[in-house]
Design a protein that fits this description.
12 strands, globular, alpha+beta, five-stranded antiparallel beta sheet
Length: 299
């Protein structure tokens, strides 16, 4: 009944209740000032939100009259799903809506600095092109061929963990490629529709799904700890990813992709148990230790 009632509410009402749920779950308490500062509601509105949450989930919340604050109930069960990625982002960077610039972490938290950040005017135009399904004329700086003028047909953003790419059809090479957004200059929308062969359905590396089986690195004396680190239910992590991003992911996670788990450095805690899963993956060369299969010698 409570789920149906929540779904019948307005979006902003659900957001405020979800925030109450979040603060109770991860901070153990919430007060009216938390709601007024986050949503700009009047104190009376904050009181109504807290009363509504208490009505829906009385076991989740208790009022501490001496301190005038609401605290987590002894049998708390979250009303909303709080995914780890969103929660950790909120704890590290604070809640933001793109308007307030100086958003602060919700708890003391240190995370690696981003060394590569796209220019917003470039990223914004690329996003508009993806949304509108339009080609983009760009000036691109490549490590192999230097500066060139190109027209690309972008259809997806890719976060490699180190930098942001855009996946696109490149009319200069007539191939689907990854373009590093920080290397793009002077993007301009082209007022025409993409050709039939330039859509993502024709990108074999994008549409192909590869299955990766990651296990604790065989050199480790205590593989059970690695199983805990990654929540391995049956001794491995089985993932299905696009071929276009497989190499980036294995590099980001420092997965030993050598056929004989030969990488001994400390950062390699996982091993790709079947390197042949990368057969035909164009960016497999990015995977640490990866060696292409050797073709049998014809006699």
């Amino acid at each position: 009944m409570s789920r149906q009632r929540i779904e019948a509410m307005s979006q902003i009402q659900r957001e405020r209740l979800a925030y109450i749920d979040f603060r109770l779950y991860f901070f153990g308490e919430i007060g009216r000032p938390d709601l007024t500062s986050r949503f700009g509601v009047a104190p009376a509105g904050a009181t109504r939100d807290l009363a509504l949450y208490r009505e829906i989930a009385p076991q989740n919340i208790e009022f501490d009259s001496s301190n005038k604050i609401y605290r987590i109930g002894k049998v708390f069960v979250p009303l909303f799903e709080h995914t780890s990625k969103r929660v950790l982002s909120a704890l590290a960077f604070g809640f933001g809506d793109g308007i307030k610039v100086g958003t602060q972490p919700l708890l003391p938290c240190e995370s690696p600095a981003a060394l590569s950040s796209p220019k917003m005017e470039v990223l914004a135009l690329i996003c508009r092109a993806i949304h509108a399904k339009r080609p983009v004329a760009i000036r691109y700086h490549s490590m192999s061929s230097g500066e060139s003028e190109r027209v690309i047909v972008p259809f997806a953003l890719v976060d490699t963990g180190l930098r942001w790419h855009v996946r696109a059809f490149d009319r200069k090479s007539s191939e689907f490629r990854d373009f590093v957004i920080t290397r793009i200059e002077a993007p301009t929308l082209v007022d025409e529709a993409p050709k039939a062969n330039e859509g993502p359905d024709n990108d074999i590396q994008w549409t192909r799904i590869v299955e990766l089986d990651l296990v604790p690195h065989p050199r480790l004396a205590r593989p059970e700890i690695i199983k805990m680190d990654y929540g391995m239910a049956d001794g491995s992590i089985r993932m299905r990813v696009r071929a276009a991003v497989a190499g980036y992911m294995l590099l980001r996670w420092s997965v030993d992709a050598s056929p004989d788990h030969s990488l001994k450095e400390e950062q390699y805690r996982l091993w790709l148990s079947d390197p042949l899963a990368l057969y035909g993956v164009e960016n497999a060369k990015l995977a640490p230790g990866y060696l292409p299969p050797v073709s049998p010698v014809k006699k």
